[in-house]
Amino acid sequence: MKRIATTALMAAGLAFSAHAVLADGHGAALEKAIKARKSLMQVYSFNLSGLGAMAKGEAKYDAKLAASLAGSLSNAAQASIGAMWPPGSDSTAMAGKTRALVKAWETYPEVQTKHEALLSAAADLVKVAGNGAEGLGAAVGAVGKACGGCHKPFRAPKK
Ligand code: HEC
User: Fold this and answer.
1) What confidence score (pLDDT) does residue 159 get?
2) pLDDT at 13
3) How far is CA 129 from each of CA 23, 58, 143, rounded to the nearest angstrom?
4) Which atom of ligand 1 is nearest to the CA of 73?
5) Torsion on CA atoms 65, 69, 71, 77, rounded to nearest 10
6) Mean local confidence (pLDDT), 83-101
7) Mutate to test the pocket of ligand 1, among 147, 154, 158 (most ligand atoms within 8 A of CB)
8) Are 69 and 129 in contact (CB under 8 A)?
9) Which residue puts its alpha carbon closest to atom 15 of ligand 1?
10) Could you give the angle at the alpha carbon of 21 between the alpha carbons of 115 and 80, nearest 5°?
11) Whose CA is nearest to atom 27 of ligand 1?
């Protein structure tokens, strides 16, 4: 009961402060954070699709390129920081600006666990990407699974 009351108060407080920050121009700061994390996701996607194409044989396997795409993906994942996910930058508070579900904040640190799963899958990918096309498919698949593992609970479907 106490927990429910606290949560309700927190929700009210958050709604109030979101309103206050929007009023004094910090809404722009929230939008910048949203833009940064979306851009980082696009980098993930660029790297992973290049590797996916090689794994599927749609593109010729190139060890050097594969290693650099995997390194870039892993570095990008390490560059994702909490500051890109400020409270109040969810799709309930900022409808139309973001697809990040408020559940990611409400259930924290679950989302962090999903992020760690990506870091680990990306590190495994880095180990094998330059060693031949054979091992690529499984490692790319594992990274893809880590992406989906976070999108499913924490990203709203595309409208
Ligand atoms: C820890 C959670 C998490 C992980 C891991 C994750 N994503 Fe995301 N992703 C999100 C959330 C949340 C959004 C919605 C962001 C927003 O709209 O503010 C998103 C959005 C995206 C978008 C849309 C970006 C845009 O321009 O709107 C792409 C593309 C994407 N992710 C690709 C990936 C790929 C590829 C991976 C794996 C390599 C990945 N994501 C891993 C949570 C995650």
Assistant:
1) 79
2) 46
3) 48, 16, 12
4) 38
5) 180
6) 97
7) 147
8) yes
9) 100
10) 15
11) 38
